[in-house]
Amino acid sequence: MQSATPAPQEPTLAQKQAQLAENLAKVDRAQARRHAKAAPRPPSKAVTLEDHILEATDDILPVSAGLQSFLTLLDLQSDTIPQGIGLHALLLPLKQQLDESANRLQALV
Questions:
Q1: Which of 2, 5, 35, 86 is most deeply packed, by most CB within 10 A?
Q2: Are 68 and 16 in contact (CB under 8 A)?
Q3: Which domain of life is it from (predicted)?
Q4: Minimal CA–CA distance to 15: which of 97, 76, 67?
Q5: Per-residue exposure over 3-13, b if at least 16 CB sit within 10 Å of its own CB, e if not
Q6: Residue 86 and residue 90: Cα distance in Å, rounded?
């Protein structure tokens, strides 16, 4: 007798490409915020904690998006490069930690 529980589905190529596009859009938004700021100001007490949190988040998001893009490429090449599976297993927890940190920082704002 076969199990009635469906097997979890792997993301399709289209889903992976959509995720890649979403990650690139996040990086673009972070860079746009950074470029929209005026020339760097000298450190002063007028800078709020919220500004520091936003800057830290802007620093984390591109790294997370880059890691996600790399993980997606490893997924796409996992059939041809077996070492990619191990590398993926090492990098995925790091990306998850970055995402959790960014989410916690954004929740503070």
A1: 86
A2: no
A3: Bacteria
A4: 76
A5: eeeeeeeeeee
A6: 6
The identity of residue 69, as a single letter, is S
Centre a 10 Å sphere on the Cβ of residue 53 and count the other Cβ atoms it contains: 16
Owner of token pair 């880059």: 66
Q: What whole-number distance in Å separates Cα of residue 29 and Cα of residue 35?
A: 10
- Give burial (CB, 10 Å; 0-12/13-18/19+) of 71: buried
Report which DSSP code applies to 75.
Answer: H
Give the number of other Cβ atoms within 10 Å of residue 48's Cβ.
9
In which band, very low, low, confident or very high, does the pLDDT at 102 lie, cut at 50, 70 and 90? very high
**d(Cα 59, Cα 104) in Å, to the nearest integer?**
14
What is d(CA 77, CA 36) in angstroms, rounded to the nearest whole number?
A: 37
What is the largest distance, in Å, between two alpha-carbon atoms of the chain? 71
* DSSP secondary structure letter of residue 47: S
